[in-house]
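Q: Got a minute? One more chain.
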Amino acid sequence: MRIISGKELAEWLDIKTSVEIVEQFYRDYREGMYTAPPRLVSAVGEKDAVWLNMPAYSLHHNSYIVKLINEYRQNPVRHGLETASGVVLFFDLETGRLRGMVDSVQLTALRTGGIGGVGAKYMARDDAETVGVIGSGRIAWTQVAALRAVRDIKSLKVYSPTPQNRVKLAARAREELGIDSRAVETARQAVEDVDIVLTATNSSEPVLDGRWLGEGVHVNSLGVLPTRRELDLESFRRAGVIAADLKEAVLREAGDLMAAVNAGLVKPDNVLELHEIVKKGPVERDRKTVTLLKSVGFAALDLFFTAAVFTKAEKDDVGRVFEV
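A: Always. Here it is, folded:
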């Protein structure tokens, strides 16, 4: 069994490769290739925590995974720990033997960055070069890095409620990505007059007002629970093209899109599948069309990404091998 820590994964697997893995998944994806029940979400109110359990298997890839990830929102204050932790268990479907274990937080961040990068590659304007991000955590970082891998991003504005966090993300983008970056004091300042908007928060109330969006903007929004709403109804009303990383999952689990559907602003039949866009090529759009990708992540992509990681790790001899 090969074990790959979050630190090892972060230092070894770059975001460009992550985008390529996700793009290959969408090129190859066909219904019936994966079996994955709806994720099991267990809220532990007494601990201000939530656990997600996501199994999946694929005969095509001869693999079975169980992804466990949790979020303890009081960890940073009470224990000095990160909010999220977890693992992905990777099994050989032929024998049932455990082949590997990898940190699920870093893997999810890279996979999610890959989704955002693919979304922007196929939905944002070719000349997009300015970005505004709401959020400053691990997912916000991989989203920004993925955009830099698919577009010639020249400037970035960062908003987060915690001043030191937004300053830190802006500084990292300057130093590691060579982007002219600055922290701003409001979400509105972050998203006005930019070509691409990223929202990467765990907010239960909208952080983006659709009235702030300019013409021709592309929006990447990440949200994983029905109780979370990053985008307001106006954001969906403004969008001329809406896509989902997997429509079935997004319509069931993205609280803000669910609200827009219930309000009659979005018809489920009009929500595009990202895998269909990738197969056909970039969406048809003019310079005024607002495009929007809503992503919640899903176990089939986790399986494909995990399998690719372990195949590459075995080749590069990354991680540690143990007998169990």
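A: The chain is about 40% helix and 25% strand.
Q: Perfect, thanks.
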